[in-house]
Amino acid sequence: MKTTDLLTVSxxxxxxxFAASALRYYEHEGLLTAQRSGGGQRRxxxxxxxxxxxxxxxxxxxxxxxxxxxxxATLPDRRTPTRADWTRLSNGWRTRLDEQIAALTKxxxxxxxxxGCGCLSLKRCAISNPADLAAGAGVGAAxxxxxxxxxxxxx
Amino acid sequence: MKTTDLLTVSxxxxxxxFAASALRYYEHEGLLTAQRSGGGQRRxxxxxxxxxxxxxxxxxxxxxxxxxxxxxATLPDRRTPTRADWTRLSNGWRTRLDEQIAALTKxxxxxxxxxGCGCLSLKRCAISNPADLAAGAGVGAAxxxxxxxxxxxxx
DNA sequence: GTCGTAGTTGAAGTTAGCTTTAAGTCAAGC
DNA sequence: GCTTGACTTAAAGCTAACTTCAACTACGAC
Lengths: 155, 155
Fold this sequence. Notes:
homodimer
């Protein structure tokens, strides 16, 4: 294995779009690993770029680093992940996005009949009190971005 | 004006769904005001409840407290805000939600052709690199939730 | 071998939006 | 007038996801 196959932290930063400090942080958090040069500098394998693409995609879908870390932990240890591996990890994303879209759509559709009319009641307003967005304590609620989890009390 | 017309902090907390600590924080940040009792305790006018409904609604649409604060600052000083006042403040919300929905939809639709196929390329992947979601430096980008503002470098 | 750029570490700082804590004061029912 | 629960403040703490800092070391072109 030639040393020239390995990437420095600045190369990875440039090619991935992540800041070098973020790469170090991700390594610290267990999302990445790197070999080391004789002097202790990081040397990345090329497939770290795909891993980083996955991380960015997952972040864009709204996953936390903890969730991403857990997902990455299910990848095989001993071989380079295949397309099937990555596909498996992103299986739930469509549902997640669908739920986020549905929640926002509901919010928007409540707008015309609520803010538009100036009612703005804490008890009745669909925007300030979108309780049904999160649909109780079901699985759906956990997937919603924090943005959509707020709700007024029912007192 | 009878004293019984005024609400204590715990009453406002119960009726608005905000924690008392949040109410104090909002006051500190200039989003709320309250009269004081002889002993220095907060006494809220009833219309603070509508103000809080607005704040919660705005938060649900994705506005920061700073933005909400700026919006509230445009309300008339000397009279109770009317329906028209509140409607004016929420005028941009529909557009904002539309943009968020469009962004998420684009992300979801990229999923099938990108993660689904396992490509996950930093340069080509629509999920890890949704540059067109934010549409450059236009007004739209500013309205997108932080969630959607990430994008890979184009190097 | 010298120089300048790139890299190293742990710790502290940042941002938003609150919550918690400590130590003390007020309000009001009996 | 006593007791109890509600309230006050400033300051510190919390979470996520990083960034910045300070002080130091490595790499590699010349």
